[in-house]
Amino acid sequence: MATCYRHPSRETGVSCSNCGRPICPDCMTTTPVGMRCPECAKQRTKVRHMRDMSAGPQVTIALIAINVVVFLTEGSHAFTISGGAETGSVIREGALLGSSEMPGLAGQGVAHGQLWRLVTGGFLHASILHIAFNMWVLYYLGTMLEPALGRVRFASIYFVSLLTGSLGALIVSPHDITVGASGAVFGLMGAAAVEMRARQIPLMQSGVGTLIVINLIISFTIPGVSWGGHVGGLIGGALAAAVLRAADRYRSPALGLVGCAAIALAAVAGSIEAAKSSEVEPSGAAPALVTPEG
C-alpha cells in the first residue's frame, strides 16, 4: 500500500484528486471534486480568488450563442438531403466536406485548401432538433467542466475535440457534407470521463457514463449520423483532458496546452490527408448532400 507523501510512516489508499499523490487523513482537504492534498487545496483557493466566480461558464455560454446565431443565418434550407432543395449558402460554403464531384461542389472541400471547413462545420446544424440537443448537452457538460478546468483549458478541449471530430468524419465519409457540434460535444463527454476517473467518481453513477453509452448507440444505429465524427471527438477530448492532467502532475500547465496544440495540428494534418486521398469519387456512389453529426 502507498504511504502519505508528507508522512511516509502512514499507509493510505487515498490519493489527491488533482495531482495523484497519496495522502493520509491529516493531509486531506475535502472538495466538491474529491480529496485534495494541502498544496493543491491552497492552489485551488488562490485560483478561486482570482476568478470572478459569479460570471458563470462564459466560454460555454459564448459557444452556445455563436451556434444559435449561426443557425439563424442558415436560412430556411438549413437541412437538405440528396435530391432535395438547394442548401443555403452558409452550409454550402461552411460545412465539413473532404471533396465532391457533385454539381456546384466540384473543386470544393478540405482537399482543395478550404481548411476553414474543419472548424466552421462544427458551428452549423441541420435542424432545430439537431441544434437543441447539441446545445443542451454542451450546457450540461460545460457547466460541469468549465468551472473545474478553467476557461482556457475548457476551450482547448472543445476545439481539439472539434478538430478530431472533423478528422473522424473525413476518414469515414469524406464525400458527405457534415454539420454539427456533436464531435466537440462528444469530446467534452470524453474529457468528463477522464476527469471523473481521476477524481475517483464512479462514471456510471455520475450520469456521464450513461450519456456516453446512449449517444454511442444512437451514433451506430441511426442512419445519417456521422459516427466517425462522434468517435473522433470522443477520443480527442479524452486525450486532451489526459494530456492536461498529466501536465498538472509535473506542475507545468503550459505544457498541457502545448500538448493540446500538438493534437490539434495532428488532426488538421490528418484531415488534409484523408480529404486528399478521397478526391476521386467512388464509381457509382452518390454522395449525400448533408450528413448531420448528431
Strand order of the largest sheet: 1-2
Number of strand segments: 4
CATH structural architecture of the largest domain: Up-down Bundle
Average pLDDT number: 82
Which term fits the overall shape? elongated
Rounded Rg: 21 Å
Within CATH, the superfamily of the largest domain carries the name Rhomboid-like
The assigned structural class equals mainly alpha
Helix content class: 55-70%
CATH class of the largest domain: Mainly Alpha
Low-pLDDT residue spans: 45-54, 76-86, 282-287
Beta fraction: under 5%
The CATH topology assignment of the largest domain is Rhomboid-like fold
Give the topology string: H per helix, E per strand.
Answer: EEHHHHHHEHHHHHE
End-to-end Cα distance, whole Å, is: 45 Å
Give a short overview.
The protein has eleven helices and four strands; from the N terminus they run ββααααααβαααααβ.
How would the blueprint of this fold be written?
Layout: E1 29-31, E2 34-36, H1 38-50, H2 58-73, H3 89-94, H4 117-120, H5 128-149, H6 151-172, E3 178-179, H7 182-198, H8 203-206, H9 208-221, H10 227-249, H11 253-276, E4 291-292
Parallel strand pairs: 3-4
Antiparallel strand pairs: 1-2
